[in-house]
Amino acid sequence: MHLNNWPIYINDQLYKTSPSITASNGESVRQLALQGVGIACLSEFLILKDIKEGKLIALFEDEIKIHEQKIHAVYYKKNYIPKRVRLFIDYLYEKLQQLN
Asked: Which of the four pLDDT bands, split at 50, 70 and 90, describes residue 9?
């Protein structure tokens, strides 16, 4: 799912949105919402503090369904991968396999 597309499903039908402003990262979208530019669809970890402090108001919490999204663990390609990075990648792989 692209950052600027919202997963809006009503009665299992997807409705597409056409944003008037787009951004390339969640923090930029958060800042736009905090400035009152419009509404945003963001992960809870980015905006939970803002909601608790009353800076942002949660809308449509029960109406917007969460669907599968791809995630990517990335690192700088080089000949040697530090052991802690390799262990973390292996851990992520194992945990994600358990979810399937």
From this structure: confident
Q: Is 29 exposed, middle or buried (0-12, 13-18, 19+ CB in 10 A)?
A: buried
| pLDDT per position as a tens digit, 43-68 | 888 999 999 999 999 987 776 666 66
pTM for this one?
A: 0.61
Outline where the chain has alpha helix (H): 26-34, 44-52, 83-99
Integer Cα distance of 47 and 94 in angstroms: 29
- Per-domain boundaries in the chain: 8-99
In b/e form, how buried is each residue of 72-93, taking b as 16+ CB within 10 angstroms? eeeeeeeeeeeeeeeeeeeeee
* Fold assignment, 8-99: D-Maltodextrin-Binding Protein; domain 2 (3.40.190)
26-34 and 44-52 helices cross at what angle (nearest 10)? 20
